[in-house]
UniProtKB/TrEMBL annotation:
Reductase C-terminal domain: residues covered: 321-405
Official protein name in the record: FAD-dependent oxidoreductase
Matching SUPFAM superfamilies: FAD/NAD(P)-binding domain (SSF51905), FAD/NAD-linked reductases, dimerisation (C-terminal) domain (SSF55424)
Lineage: Bacteria, Pseudomonadati, Pseudomonadota, Alphaproteobacteria, Sphingomonadales
Record's keyword terms, sorted: FAD, Flavoprotein, Oxidoreductase
């Protein structure tokens, strides 16, 4: 039995343990994680870890010694399959039962898989774990053509790395633009053009019918209409399914993830949830219940929960932020653009340094800043203040955003 058991040794889990110790929590802490590794950063998996620029050691959230020194028991390579809120225990796949005082559920999600034939062939990859990416890397030497299914951030980042390696890459996006779920049209069109300029074949409105096989391996992707995109590797980036089955089976409320209140509490006593798997009312989504998939959200919710556990509650109220690196483009996003009714382009898109400002009824709700760090830093205050700003001023890069706050 531990005073705090954290299930999931990823971004949220790691930050929860760090924040508890920073707040002088002296009880026992155990972190149970399904992966064999101690917590590491996930964003580099589709960026500089995949490209080989960063070794695994360099993406660890903390070195192994840190967890030992802080008295955090790392129970890695164990999957929790059952939660018993009455007995205050969790049970792992291999039958071990571990007691808790407080439970923090930080399991993220598993990549959504295709359901068509061939989805499980050798050479078809989801991108969520180090093991996924190591498998992809081990196949690169014999791979010339890659099909990326899904034009979201992860798919596009992987496509950028592969294009730079000289692979022949096709991105298959079902909708009529890339990044449709997360960004406005001007940004989508910009990234589409960038990928094309780097030799990536971007196919929009591409509906996957099945994965083609040859000799037990993937050979390509068949589209509805019959066209076959030849590929020795297929990367599937079509979202995640929150890993909350044991909590739901224990009676937790939720649907798309497990529902938590502003302190990260689930509907089950002494059980909190954080990160990608936690559905929370977000102030920047007009208080609507959403899940956010970002390091910021995992870290900040973790800190919120550590505060609740140490008796210094503060409701979750962080402004969402996110980043994506593709080629030499550094995108930084602040706020949530969903629900915006107009956009302003700030700067010249052709210069490859610009920002898209998202407005709702005249108020700034989000910015996407491409190679525009200053806009990102200064624009944050416009988002947190929901500032009503003059679109012509917003559009003028000569006028600093901080002067509009
Ligand atoms: P995770 O970090 O996924 O940790 C969850 C852990 O729980 C995993 O190790 C999982 O194996 C484990 N687990 C699951 N179920 C169980 C179980 N039943 N028992 C035990 N353990 C379990 N975010 C950004 O902000 N910027 C980016 O640029 C960015 N790029 C990304 C690129 C990639 C390729 C990926 C995959 C994600 C990226 N993200 C990015 C998202 C970010 O990594 C996640 O939002 C973040 O990791 C969420 O943290 P988490 O703690 O909720 O989940």
């Amino acid at each position: 039995t531990y005073d705090v058991v954290i299930v999931g040794a990823g971004h949220g889990g790691a930050q929860a343990a760090i924040a508890l110790r920073q707040r002088k929590f002296e009880g026992t802490i155990a972190m149970i994680g399904e992966e064999p590794e101690i917590p590491y950063e996930r964003p580099p998996l589709s960026k500089d870890y995949f490209s080989g620029e960063k070794s695994f050691d360099r993406i660890l959230i903390r070195p192994a010694a840190f967890w030992e020194e802080r008295g955090v028991a790392m129970l890695t390579g164990k999957r929790v399959v059952k939660v018993d809120p009455d007995a205050h225990t969790v049970t792992t796949e291999d039958g071990e039962t571990i007691g808790y005082g407080e439970l923090i559920w930080a399991t993220g999600g598993h990549p959504r898989r295709l359901t068509c034939s061939g989805h499980d062939l050798i050479g078809v990859h989801g991108v969520r774990t180090r093991a996924d990416v190591d498998r992809m890397m081990s196949e690169l030497a014999t791979t010339e053509k890659v099909a990326v299914i899904g034009g979201g951030y992860i798919g596009l980042e992987a496509a950028a790395v592969l294009a730079k390696m000289g692979k022949q890459v096709t991105v298959l996006e079902a909708l009529d633009r890339v990044l449709a779920r997360v960004a406005g049209e001007p940004l989508s069109r910009f990234y589409e053009a960038e990928h094309r300029a780097h030799g990536v074949d971007v196919r929009l409105g591409a509906i996957v019918e099945c994965i083609e096989e040859r000799d037990g391996r993937v050979a390509g992707v068949r589209l509805s209409g019959g066209e076959i995109i030849e590929a020795q590797m297929v990367i599937v980036g079509i979202g995640i399914i929150p890993a909350v089955e044991p909590l739901m089976a224990a009676g937790a409320r939720g649907g798309n993830g497990v529902a938590v209140d502003e302190h990260g509490r689930t509907s089950l006593p002494h059980i909190f949830a954080i990160g990608d798997c936690a559905m929370h009312a977000n102030a920047y989504a007009e208080g609507l219940p959403i899940r956010l998939e970002s390091v910021q959200n995992a870290n900040d919710l973790a800190t919120t929960v550590a505060r609740a556990i140490t008796g210094d509650e503060e409701p979750y109220n962080s402004v969402p932020w996110f980043w994506s690196n593709q080629y030499d483009l550094r995108l930084q996003t602040v706020g949530l653009s969903s629900g915006h009714d107009s956009t302003v382009t700030r700067g010249d898109i052709a210069s490859r340094s610009f920002s898209i400002v998202y407005l709702k009824q005249g108020h700034v709700v989000a910015l996407d800043c491409v190679n525009a760090v200053k806009d990102y830093v200064q624009g944050k205050a416009l988002v947190t203040g929901r500032v009503a700003a003059d679109p012509t001023k917003l559009a003028d890069p000569e006028i600093p955003l901080k002067s509009l706050a």
